Amino acid sequence: MGKCPHDFKKDAVIVISLLLAISVSACELVSQAPVTPPPQGNIPTPTPAPMAETTFEVTIPAPIPDGTSLMLAVLDEVTGLPINPVFYPMQAQDATHYSAKIADPLNGVVKYRYVLQGTYPIQEDTPFDQPIRYRMYVVPGPSQVSDIVSSWMDQPFSGEVGRVQGQVVDPQSGQPLPDMLVTASGAQTMSDSLGNFILEGLPPGVNNLVAYSLDGTYQPFQQGAAVAAGLTTPAAVSMKSARNVKMTFVVTVPADTVVGAPLRIAGNLSQLGNTYADLDGGVNTIANLMPVMSTLPDGRYTITLDLPAGTDLRYKYTQGDGLWNAEHTKDGDFRVRQLIVPDANSVVQDQVETWTSGSNAPVLFQVSVPPTTPSSDIVSIQFNPYAWTAPIPMWPIGNNQWVFKLFSPLNLVSTFGYRYCRNDQCSSADDVATAGQSNPGKPHSVSTTPQEIKDTVAGWIWESTSSGIGAQPIISNRPQGFITGIELQPTYHPSWFPFYPRAFQTIQSVKSNWVVLDPTWTVSSNNPLVFAQKPGSNPLRSDLEFQIVSARALNLNVALFPNPHFESQSDDWRYSIPADWNSWFDRYRSFALYNADVAAKSGAQALVLGGEWIPAALYDGSADSESRFRALITEIRQHFTGQIWWGQPYPGSMQTYPPFLDVVDGIYLLWSAPLSQNPSAPIDEMAKEAGRLFDTDILPFAISIQKPVIVAPVYSSAVGASSGCVPAPSGGCVDWTALSRPMPDIPSVALDLQGQANVYQAFLTAINDRPWISGIISRGFYPPASLADKSASVNSKPAANILSYWYARMLGIEK
Q: What is the pTM for the complete model shown?
């Protein structure tokens, strides 16, 4: 690591390299849009919205300690909620009532929370001991809002709560509105496909209820909701659609801008990179989800966006993300711009004052990566100032070289760690020298003198491997309609979004004709039941539709297999049965119908119900579970005309299957049965055992149910997978999902790539002799990067070669 004086000639070399040597794969993610000159003529420039004063009044649960002050924290969702708040001291009216006044533009949306400031800040939380992301208030004019703090993070909650339950609709069409963020007193949820929502754990009194569109397509809704202890308050929410206008942004940038590197616009809307989630290090935006601006001949940058009129837009320009390499004021402060989008096409003329933040000089990172790095991958850099923050794509300069020039905020840190990874998947697809979530990375100290760092990645953790497939038997050509496929793992992260098209190409290359997607909702509480979509943890409708459309563009059939995501194992219904079965069925119905509607709209072919998470109590925990599921399947068919499959776990009783399976179209057999207790068992021995299980357990079931059976095996590439039990460090067996990324590695589990390939070889050999099996789908595929890890994913592993060989011959593509 050496220091060098600032050299604009060196920047020019980087520029030329960036313009001439960007690889095709990298272009897919970081290339600039076609240059479109700004509109000419009398295109108006937006005028600032008038300001209005709002009085925030709050009731707190108890008097605050001496030496402590109460603050109103107005949050910056573009930089990161905990990173750049503005604190307003609140004035005591009495021991438990405080107030503060702030000014904001008319129709602006204030995102805020309350904080106790003493020796260290203490944030408010919910009665369920979950931190409050933010409250929202829409400024209608000079006004006041009254809030109630339930508890603080350092204190347990004691008291009674109520709930608000309602529906969000479009008042003009009367249609329900899904995927609307609904919040009151800091509790947040999303509306389902019927527009329904439930907000649990609200303090008694009047709560400010706000419904908000993540992309601004609908105007915010706001009203008071009177909540009573132990009761449900109904709420009818109507949100008017907003008309899109064309907003052209033209920005003049400083002389030290790295020309040719992508300049992005980061903002508080989903289309500007906001995930509405708490990502690593407290940031909320992802660079790869932000639009890239075009360069004009005079050196300025421009982009034209369709934005909803009336939207409170918070935005900034960046050569990184919302935190790193974003614009600053000359004083070194974060710069966040605010604009109420006007009701007409407009041009915004901006100027970035500086990329730097203080006296510390930029750092140029240049890294050489192995030639074995997949050509479709990008290389990302991740920084650790206090914890790892979200990775940022580097800039390719050809010959396996990538660069990134870090400008800011170097005034906030004297030292930091950094590391490299592939496709933004740090902690999963790392440089071998800095692998793992707990690795602090390579240390670096800032300086007032520009620095240049040259690194070499000797290798990537879990680099993909390939192997021959050996001698194969004669493979029977299956009749038309036979299913060969891949199922994605039931995990989600917003950073995966740009990599789905490439993942589906990989799945197609294995000769799959189906892909199964595993959308999730999150169970964040079991009593009371809180089971809903959660941004960042679950795909939003737009994410899921993008996946389906991308897969369908490659002629892949698509099935949706909705599975709950449990934030705590203690809430997992396999271990803790919900006390209120009515709530459980109601929420599962909403979950299933949501995915049925997405499937219908996006052209998916099948919907899978059931799964491993369904508790045994499904069959005896409720006297009317049979009728409920029959009614649910009937209702789903009114929304979705494709196939409905039932996810039936095996091992598991095949004799006491649910009676309502007579109304489904197929059985999706979730197979994780042991094939041998010997980790190095011969393939023919495992094939014989698989055949025995098919004949003794599955065939009688198939004959009885008279439905097609699609077998969906899941076997990790770890020692012990063939036995159905990968040994856990503390005894027992490791659940296959615990080996999936981005879960941390379990060092005691031994990698066995060939063992996974052998299991698939044995499994397919057994299927080859049983024409009554209608298909096979491999489960657990990791979409954003190829990894030869211990997970069940076959992405670029030897097992994928086995599947490709068999799939092609089963379908008659090859002989």
A: 0.92
